[in-house]
Design a protein that fits this description.
By secondary structure, the protein is α/β, with parallel strands linked by helices. The chain has a single domain, classed as Aldolase class I (TIM Barrel), CATH 3.20.20. The chain is about 30% helix and about 30% strand. The strands form 2 sheets. Strands 5-1-2-6-7-8-9-10-11 form a 9-stranded mixed beta sheet. The chain starts with a strand and ends with a strand. The chain binds iron/sulfur cluster.
Length: about 270
């Protein structure tokens, strides 16, 4: 059994509790304009060529994006850092892309992680059949669930898909015996508007669940701009500025009525 991944990040501290290994799976049903991992979107192995200067000449550099990895190899890699997980209360996070798109592999990988007593987290766009959540629920300690825009037309404009399936899935997932942290990419002039964040706050309030234990506002940043150049993709939000600390703190206040801890992720 193999999965297509494009990166493994050890000692990650922003993808769930404690110190974690984050596995980035390739392929995503969305194409968010602000995506910080544009190399994750395509479900195939890709090879990119770029011209690199060397003295007064140049050479072509080839870079492969995506590798096939077996379940046994991945579990062996993950286990190397067990001591750090145990010391910090960390574990393994499957991210992407959309990790649940490779559901057969993910189901088995999560099952193996639980068999060896590792904390498991799935970072999802939510745009997958609910039956995929049902398959991984028994082996997933925490879901990081992205909600991007409450207006379906705007959602489609910014991500390529409407929000119906995503909102249905979060409602249904929140009824299950699980823990969910909501993550909201906060992009000025796109989804980080007072109107949208208030609508999002009302939506979470209406769900009335104990499953949602945290909310994270993720500030839009420009650190991935070079990736668009490398991939010959157009960065459509190149004109958008990063939000200021003051803006982030104002948006954070919108969620106060929920009584759910709301964090700004640095
Ligand atoms: S859901 Fe995440 S990985 Fe997929 S396109 Fe959007 S930002 Fe990128």
């Amino acid at each position: 059994m193999e999965a297509l991944i494009f990166d493994i990040k050890r000692f990650a501290i922003h993808d769930g509790p404690g110190v974690r290994t984050t596995v980035f799976m390739k392929g995503c049903p969305l194409s968010c304009l602000w995506c910080h991992n544009p190399e994750s979107q395509n479900s195939d192995i890709e090879v990119y060529e770029s011209n690199k200067p060397l003295g007064n000449q140049s050479f072509i550099k080839k870079q492969q994006i995506g590798n096939l990895v077996t379940l046994d190899k991945l579990i062996a890699d993950i286990e190397r850092d067990r001591i750090y997980y145990e010391e910090s209360g960390g574990g393994i996070t499957f991210s992407g892309g959309e990790p649940l798109q490779q559901i057969d592999f993910i189901e088995q990988a999560l099952k193996r992680c639980k068999e060896i007593d590792l904390h498991t987290t799935v970072d999802t766009s939510g745009h997958i059949p609910f039956s995929f959540f049902e398959r991984v629920l028994p082996y997933t300690d925490l879901f990081l669930f992205d909600i991007k825009h409450m207006n379906s037309t705007s959602h489609k404009e910014y991500t390529g898909v409407d929000n119906n399936l995503i909102l249905d899935n979060i409602r249904r997932l929140a009824e299950q015996d699980c823990e969910i942290w909501i993550r909201i990419p906060s992009v000025p002039d796109c989804n980080a508007t007072e109107q949208n964040l208030e609508a999002l706050c009302n939506f979470i309030s209406d769900i009335q669940t104990k499953a949602i234990t945290r909310i994270y506002l993720l500030p839009y940043h420009k650190l991935s701009s070079h990736k668009y150049d490398n991939l010959n993709m157009t960065e459509k939000l190149a004109h958008i500025s990063e939000p200021t600390t003051e803006q982030m703190e104002e948006w954070q206040k919108i969620f106060r009525p929920l009584n759910i801890k709301t964090y700004i992720k640095g």
